[in-house]
Each structure stands twice: as C-alpha cells, then as structure tokens.
Amino acid sequence: MDTFNLPPLPEYSLTPLPSLVPPIPDKFLTLLLPIAAYWIVSMIFHWIDTKDLFSKYRLHTPAEVLKRNHVSRWEVVRDVVLQQMIQTVVGTLLGMTEPDDFYGKEDYDVAVWARRIRIVQRALPGLLSLVSLNANGLAKNIAGSYPTLAGALSGGVYPSLTQTVMLSNGNQVSVPSFATWETLAAKAMYWYIIPAVQFGIGIFIVDTWQYFLHRAMHMNKWLYTTFHSRHHRLYVPYAFGALYNHWFEGFLLDILGTSIAFKVAGMSTRQGMWFFTCSTIKTVDDHCGYSLPWDPLQHLTSNNAGYHDIHHQSWGIKTNFSQPFFTFWDRFLGTVWTGGDISARYERSKIAAQRLVDQDSSITNTCSSQSTTSDHRPYQDALTEAKELQTIPLSFQQPQPPSGKATQQAAASREQVLDDHDDGGRQILIEEAAEEKEARSMIRKSNRRRTASSLTQSESLRGLRERVTMHGRTGGILGMESSR
After folding, report:
1. Are the beta carbons of 280 and 286 closer than 8 angstroms?
2. Which of 235, 324, 244, 230 is nearest to 281 (CA)?
3. Which of 11, 276, 337, 362 is the right S-S partner for 319, CB 3.0 to 4.6 Å?
4. Phi/psi class of residue 266: alpha, beta or left (left: φ > 0; alpha: ψ in -120 to 50)?
5. Which residues pair with 162 in a beta bridge?
6. How many other C-beta atoms lie within 10 A of the C-beta of residue 64?
7. Residues with Cβ < 8 Å from 34, sequence gap 6 or more?
8. What global pTM score does this model have?
C-alpha cells in the first residue's frame, strides 16, 4: 500500500450512554442542575447575609437592602420560581430535539482528528519552500536521529510506522499507523480543545444576545417600563434576586439566549448541563452583593458583582449592560461606566438607609402597640424637605460626575429612572437628593469635630473603596477606568 495513504479508521459500535447520576436521565438532570445550583448558591450567600459574615466585603449594608429596594422578598421568590417553571418547559422541549446519547465512537472520532493532523502535515514541504528551505533534504539529514520529526517535515510520511489489520476476507495486510504525537494531539483536540471552543462560542453568543437585548430594554421606553423595570426594583441586588424579572423578559434574555447558544455551539447534553449550570452560577454571583477576594468568578473576568452593581444604581442604570461573562461589548461600544470613583455615592446611600433603620428602631422601642405595618408618618419631615428640593436645578440634585461622557451617562440614567412611574420614578431622585444633602451635612460636621478615636470621612470612604474595588486591579474603582 502507498505510504501516502492515510491510516484506516477503527470500527466501532454504539451503546446507550448511562446516566451521570443514576437513575436520573441526563436530559432531566440538565433541567434540574441549574435550578438546584441557583438556590444552593443563593442560599449560601443569603446565609452569609443573615449572619453578617464578611461585612468588610459587602457592597451595601443590610440597612440598604431593607430600605432601598422596592420589592418584597416574597415577590422576588415568586417571580424567580415562575421563570424557572418556564425554563423547565422550554428545556424539556429543547431536549426533545436532541438525539439520545451513545458512547463507543470515541476512538473513531479521535482517529478522524489524527487523520486531519496527518493531512495538514502534507502542506509543510510547500510552506517551507516559501522560505527557501528544502523539507525533504532536511528530513533525510535528521531521519536517523529524529525519525518522527523527519516524517512530519516530509509531509507526514512515516515509512516505519505500520500496523497489521485483518480484512473481511480473512487476509492480513500492513497499513500505515499514526505517530504517537498525532494520537496525543488528536486526543487533546477531541477531549479538550473542541469542547473549550464550543464553550467559548456559547459564551460569546450569550454575552452578545444579552448585551444587545438588555441594552434595547433600557433604550426603548416601552420595553423598559413594561418589562425590564421590574428587575430594577432591586436597587440593592442580592443573590436569589438574580433572576427576578418579568416572565417574558426572563424567557427572552436568559432562556432563549442560552438555548440558542447551546444549539449553535453544537454541545452535547452533558456539555449543555454544565454550560447552563455555570451560566446560572455566574449570574447569581454577579448579583450576590459581595466583592470576595477568594471568589474565582470575580477575578476570571471584569464582569462581576461590583461591575454589575453600578448598573443597578439610579445613577448608573444606563451603563454596564454586559452580562453574564465578559464586558467586551460595553468597552467596544462605549457603554462602560466612566464616572470614576463612586465611593461617595455608596457612602451616601449607606448613611441614608441606616438613618431610616434607626428611626424605625426608635419608633419600635417607644411604641409597643405599633402595628406591624410600616408607619410613614415619622418620615414626613424628611419627605417635605426632599420635596422642597424640586426647585433646585436638576444638575444639582445628583452628585456631579466628571464633565463630558460621564455627565451624559448620568443624565441618561436619571431620565431612565424618571420614566419608571410605577416603581418610584421622580420620587427616587428626590429622596436621593435629600440623602445627598444630609450626607454632605454629616461630612461638614465630622470635619469640624474630629477626634483621635473617630474615623475620618476620607478613611471611611477608603474603607468602602477597598470593599468594592476589584482586587489587584488599578485604574479606577471596581476595576474600571476612571476616564475613557
């Protein structure tokens, strides 16, 4: 047989693939794992919340979670469960389009890749001739010492590599075989490189799908007020609120996007199982409200809890659209937050929320017969003061970001909040203006009455900056550039 012929492919027989976790079928496990991962990871973060662990790494205080969000935890759980029910139905239909999984063809597929590697080698002599190198001459010179390298240089010719196979008529013949390095490279391609490429394609599709749809939800007033504003009732995100959406938005952004990515990338059932689960965990982590230095998901990409938290604030709502994996679309299209250091904004919200909690605590301690329903009368003075700020020019109702693009981003975010009449609208900005006024007043007082034992404002902000700055990154808070 001519030595330029390719090694033969092995025969194979297919056997149904056993379940990864008997007796649960893999297709059902693909539906179950993302939901289980969502609630397990969420409850871990919720337990950390309730025990007030790692408070130095919190982006927001418990008081902010209690006072700044415009939706109850019960409503969040209800809507998340509804989305997961829709997710299960769609996943079941998607699974019906997938063929059953078998094993037994792995060696055959590896041999196919080894053949491709052998074919690619045939181009080497021609490529080397472009730089005036005689591949065949080089191969002859090193054949005695490096026969494998000589075979590759000569275009994948390995005269000494043969194997004996039996034909269907019972005769035995000698045929070419693969070099050891070809087999190892083929196994690496089949078992590692190709799955990694498939995951990369899936990630790119999900990031692209979610970025443009998410951005459209913010740019179109009807889409925002009808669907996406529900998710932004969580001004202080927490883990199990990650999938708190309008059910249609949840289907469009999360369920349909990952389903398309799964199909286009050509993933197997088990690949989809891990892809869906990892996507879910990443989404929960992005809403966890913590910047944990040992959390690998917060360091693998710049899209993390700190980055996405800016998008949930009234002043950053029209920036940082990217989710859940990378931020390349934000950076390429100029929608990343460019307002610089935001420590003062976070400090303002912390002070205002704690003030409201302290007022509630005072009322509870002095009025034992008070109803469990919140009494808003104690806040009337604050609300009156805030309403008086409506006469202040709009440019002075928010902390002022640097001029230029950041100002445009802040103005667009403010306009987005004003559009949301059902969930706060203008009242949110009025309250934040009052909070800003109070925070500045407290800063002035603290500057006049500093003691050796008290924490200065700059030290306080520095501590907050350490909690929300991405570890080991420079160039601005939360790992972002302070200017663009």
Report:
1. no
2. 324
3. 337
4. left
5. 176
6. 23
7. 87, 276, 277, 279, 280
8. 0.76
Per-residue pLDDT of 177-229, as tens digits, reads 999 999 999 999 999 999 999 999 999 999 999 999 999 999 999 999 999 99
Nearest partner of 148 among 128, 174, 177, judged by Cα: 177
How far apart CA 477 and CA 329 sit, in angstroms, is 19
d(CA 224, CA 229): 5
Name residues whose C-beta falls within 8 Å of residue 330's C-beta, 6 or more positions apart in sequence. 211, 319, 320, 321, 322, 336
Neighbours of 2 (CB within 10 A): 5
Question: Which pLDDT score, from 0 to 100, does residue 398 have?
Answer: 42
Which three-class secondary structure state does DSSP give residue 296? coil
User: What amino acid is encoded at 350 in this protein?
Assistant: K
Query: In sequence order, which residues have a C-beta less than 8 Å from that of residue 175 and are 6 or more positions away?
Result: 1, 5, 7, 8, 162, 163, 164, 165
Paired tokens of 405: 């693009």
Q: Are 305 and 332 contacting, i.e. CB atoms less than 8 angstroms apart?
A: no
Residue count of the chain: 484
Q: Which of 434, 359, 305 is nearest to 63 (CA)?
A: 359
**Segment 103-108 long-range contacts (CB within 8 Å, at least 24 positions apart):** 103/14, 103/15, 103/17, 104/12, 104/13, 104/14, 104/15, 105/12, 105/14, 106/190, 107/10, 107/12, 108/9, 108/10, 108/11, 108/12
Residue with more model confidence, 143 or 367: 143
CA distance 448 to 444: 6
CA distance 51 to 400: 36
Q: Which of 114, 161, 163, 159 is nearest to 140 (CA)?
A: 159
The amino acid occupying position 347 is: E
Q: How far apart are CA 484 and CA 337, in angstroms?
A: 9
Nearest to 183 by CA among 108, 114, 107, 104: 114
Q: What pLDDT sits at residue 250?
A: 94
Write the burial class of residue 373 (CB in 10 Å: 0-12 exposed, 13-18 middle, 19+ buried): exposed
List, in order, residues 6 or more apart from 483 with CB less than 8 Å away. 338, 340, 402
